[in-house]
Design brief:
Elements lengths: L1 H15 L3 E9 L2 E8 L4 H21 L7 H27 L6 E5 L1 H18 L4
Antiparallel strand pairs: 1-2, 1-3
Length: about 130
Amino acid sequence: MSKMLALGGGALVGIACFLPLLSLTLTFGAVSSSGNLHATDLTSGKVALVLAFASLLLAVIDIRGGDGTYRRPAAACALLGAAIVVYKSWTLTSKVNGAGVSFAHVSMGMGMWVALIGGGIAVASDFIGRE
């Protein structure tokens, strides 16, 4: 069970890298435009994706015949990747909202929440049963 949680945590962090981190809306009078920023658009998001892939690889090795020694490094990689995604999402949101402009509105995207859940599941994999 704990090996599957480590796999799921890494998978969720990897999926979070492809989901929108931020949703930005700009309004100039009657003209409005919106767009999304994904983690893979940023260098730190690509690092988080590599860490999520490493977490998946370690979890698969552990499931396919490991003795449980790769579960903790898999969880650490997933947690670090999730921390990068969440930190980058929060800092970019605060920069746009702190600029004090009335024509730009930014909101958190699904990527940040999925990464947060994935990191939590990766941490939980270390506390649930030793197999």
